[in-house]
Design the sequence.
């Protein structure tokens, strides 16, 4: 009788845990921060680490870090108020200090007050495909020295931005022969963001499920040992 009660409690716990996990992934940050697991805060300005065999987009992440991140954000969110807090206090309003304001110093340059996001559901819509995005980056970026990036770097950044938006799977290299076929539409961006969130939720749910199965295994093993004594 005691073993059956423990089993019922165990299976009930599994059901509640899975339900809670599903609610967590659906609600996102709507859950109380007290219910979220604390994790170490990463250095958002650190140079990305490449895998042993980096892809084109992987290499693009480092080019983005060097040439794009200072203005477009560590997550492609643009020059938001929140992102600027990652910089030292004296550098958070540099356009008001002269170096990037209306009257920059001799080697300085003026930056726009609004810098757009590059990653997200409502971005890149002024481009029809990856080829147009590549051409724009090649001619106009980086802002302080347009046209200074190598051809390889421009394609790497293009592949990175497209991959982060879920529009490119990075299986092969993006180049002039296939870029025009990689379309950018509001529908594609929206679908990619939904799939990105769903994919993350599935992995976390799988992790929770596997952990619960291990717990169940030890509970059942303990019950078996108890009933055989």
Sequence:
């Amino acid at each position: 009788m005691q073993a059956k009660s423990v089993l019922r409690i165990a299976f009930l716990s599994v059901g509640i845990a899975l339900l809670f996990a599903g609610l967590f992934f659906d609600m996102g940050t709507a859950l109380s921060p007290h219910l979220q697991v604390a994790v170490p805060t990463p250095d958002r300005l650190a140079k990305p680490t490449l895998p042993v065999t980096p892809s084109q987009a992987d290499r693009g992440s480092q080019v983005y870090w060097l040439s794009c991140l200072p203005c477009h954000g560590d997550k492609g969110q643009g020059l938001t108020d929140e992102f600027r807090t990652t910089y030292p206090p004296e550098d958070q309003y540099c356009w008001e200090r002269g170096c990037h304001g209306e009257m920059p110093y001799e080697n300085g340059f003026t930056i726009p007050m609004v810098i757009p996001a590059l990653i997200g559901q409502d971005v890149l819509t002024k481009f029809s495909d990856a080829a147009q995005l590549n051409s724009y980056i090649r001619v106009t970026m980086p802002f302080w020295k347009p046209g200074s990036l190598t051809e390889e770097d421009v394609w790497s950044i293009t592949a990175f931005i497209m991959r982060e938006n879920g529009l490119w799977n990075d299986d092969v290299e993006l180049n002039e022969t296939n870029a025009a076929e990689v379309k950018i539409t509001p529908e594609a961006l929206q679908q990619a963001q939904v799939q990105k969130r769903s994919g993350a939720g599935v992995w976390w749910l799988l992790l929770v499920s596997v952990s619960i199965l291990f717990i169940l295994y030890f509970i059942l093993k303990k019950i078996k040992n108890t009933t055989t004594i």
About this structure: DSSP finds seven helices and no strands in the chain.
